[in-house]
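FORM 12-B: Structure-to-Sequence Request
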């Protein structure tokens, strides 16, 4: 009995070995050996695979349609300006004795690059003031390969915005979005010409809204984003997921000169106001009352015995200016403009700047812990150059 059992076990083992070899080399034979069952071994080259639909990329969150809509209206801007370079050897008296002034100052051209956004089929382009500032020549290169000479229509150093114009036909123009509908976490795309490599699109989100007190511009209300913004992106477009313009890229926070995920764009609400004023009058007209404001810090609040930490302390009043004529004094705390609460100096500047020169505004101040209302005839804010505010 034991001998028969060993013989059976050996027979089964040999049979399984033979079947395994046959199944590996000739799977169709193995199928017949198992009663005609075919395709026992899965052949992945013949397994039906469902192909992804053509629009699967878009369905999975692609923003190619937004980029496609906006990219034609984003341009590269190349500027040049003449500068005089002094040969350092001229500082050596022995060198000057032998060569005199033959190596005197020489004219050289400095080149820079940036980006811009076509906002009108009539050829108006928005960019940063620092992109075209003091430029002798401006060349605009479109995404379709065309080039044109750009002429400055006007600039505003206090928001770092400028409008230039080109004379070409069939120009694509971007659609202005509504930044007031944007929320932190919304997807945004930055389009520009970083480091001069060519038109580039980067993606990120809205990191914050209403950023101020950064010391970049006089009037600040930035959109902060982590979409990569690098040198050359200045003046380019920050768009929403539908391809609408949300802002003009203007600055980055960086210790290395490259993107660290903290970029700032001027919101389209500010952009539109500045653009309309520049196109219609060649400059931006803002309200002004002639005071030197200062934020209320905890230390100042304690030293002045203030029970509140909002408002703006009037540190100085320009003699015979609008505020002086209305009776405002140093030490007053400005807390409201035409009924709108002022939390800090940034809000105060923005509220007054929006007022039309010649208009009488009701300004509320705290003076010796008592409220007082002053009727101030708004003046016209003096034009300030970029170098004057730095």
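FORM 12-B RESPONSE
SEQUENCE OUT:
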């Amino acid at each position: 009995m034991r001998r028969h059992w060993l013989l059976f076990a050996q027979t089964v083992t040999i049979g399984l070995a033979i079947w395994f070899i046959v199944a590996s080399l000739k799977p169709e034979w193995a199928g017949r050996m198992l009663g005609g069952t075919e395709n026992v071994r899965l052949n992945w080259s013949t397994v039906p695979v469902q192909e992804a639909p053509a629009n699967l990329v878009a369905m999975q969150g692609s923003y190619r349609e937004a980029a496609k809509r906006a990219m034609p209206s984003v341009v590269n801007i190349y500027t040049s300006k003449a500068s005089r370079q002094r040969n350092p050897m001229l500082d050596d008296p022995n060198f000057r004795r032998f060569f005199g002034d033959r190596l005197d100052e020489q004219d050289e051209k400095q080149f820079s690059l940036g980006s811009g956004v076509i906002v009108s089929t009539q050829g108006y382009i928005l960019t940063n003031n620092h992109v075209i500032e003091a430029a002798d020549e401006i060349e605009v290169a479109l995404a379709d390969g065309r080039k044109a000479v750009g002429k400055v229509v006007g600039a505003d150093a206090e928001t770092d915005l400028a409008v230039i114009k080109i004379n070409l036909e069939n120009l694509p123009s971007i659609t202005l979005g509504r930044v007031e509908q944007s929320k932190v976490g919304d997807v945004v795309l930055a389009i520009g010409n970083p480091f001069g490599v060519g038109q580039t699109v980067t993606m990120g989100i809205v990191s914050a809204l209403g950023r101020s007190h950064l010391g970049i511009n006089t009037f600040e209300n930035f959109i902060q984003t982590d979409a990569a913004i690098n040198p050359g992106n200045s003046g380019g477009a920050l768009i929403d997921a539908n391809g609408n313009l949300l802002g003009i890229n203007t600055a980055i926070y960086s210790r290395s000169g490259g993107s660290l995920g903290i970029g700032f764009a001027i919101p389209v609400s500010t952009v539109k106001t500045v653009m309309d004023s520049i196109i219609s009058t060649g400059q931006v007209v803002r309200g002004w009352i002639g005071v030197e404001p200062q934020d209320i810090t905890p230390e100042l609040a304690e030293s002045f015995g203030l029970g509140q930490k909002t408002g703006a302390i009037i540190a100085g009043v320009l003699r015979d200016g609008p505020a002086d004529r209305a009776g405002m004094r140093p030490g007053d705390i400005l807390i409201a403009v035409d009924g709108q609460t002022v939390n800090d100096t940034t809000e105060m500047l923005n509220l007054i700047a929006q007022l039309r020169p010649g208009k009488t505004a009701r300004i509320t101040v705290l003076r010796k812990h008592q409220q007082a209302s002053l009727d101030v005839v708004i003046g016209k804010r003096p034009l300030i150059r970029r170098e004057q505010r730095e």
